[in-house]
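Project standup — Tuesday

K.O.: blocked on the structure for the chain from last sprint. Re-posting the sequence here as requested.
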Amino acid sequence: MTDNTFDVLILIGRPASGKSEIIDFLQRMPPDVRRRVYHVADLDVLDDFPMLWAWFEEDHILETHLGRLRLHTDDQGYFLHTDLWHLLIERLSLEYHKRLRDEPSYHDRTTAVVEFSRGSEHGGYAAALPHLADDLLRRAAMMYVRVSFAESLRKNRRRFNPNKPDSILEHSLPEEKLKRLYGEDDWDALSAGNPEFVTVRSIGVPYVVFENEDDVTTDTPDLLAARLETTLGRLWELWRAGRETSAHSLQAH
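H.V.: unblocked you, prediction finished:
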């Protein structure tokens, strides 16, 4: 790791909660400011949406052009098998391991941002997080972007661009699908036991909540900058303390 930046930042929350806007804001930041103020190095974004969208496209090609059965989704765009949600998370870990394989000094300059949404209908975060690899989790800090379902629905409508359904910043879900898949969210239940750490298997991952019901991620860069500085600053202190505790424990053994 670098002296002042996260190795891995897990960024989760409902669709249209503001996750992609936070990433876009950080990517536009001068690197020295991003490192000093937000504790984020060069961003390498591992997002399961492009993988998921590729499955939709492949199923359409198989059915429409090749006369084959769909592999991943039904004709309404719902997964044929629930564990395909977990496959996406496993793929994120695989992509992370490829980075480490190809560049042993990866974290000297890079913060891996692992982004995804999970609703209770397909297992929630309690089911998804255990599919991240141990070495990723041990290096990770987590930020949950909190919005109500009503706010997620409002922003989902607002950002819809029918000409770019594959766009990270402009994709949208049909409202019926959004309600079914993401109407219920298990974050509060998952984090209820500890205000600072979520335990995944036996690994404690420090977390913070970025409150965004007032939508500071849309057209209010000064408000976003201030809230993100405060929230990531708190997460940095938790993460650094956890890393130091782990290092001391290893030395003791």
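K.O.: great, moving the ticket to review. The longest helix spans residues 221-252. The domain at 8-252 is CATH 3.40.50.300 (Rossmann fold).
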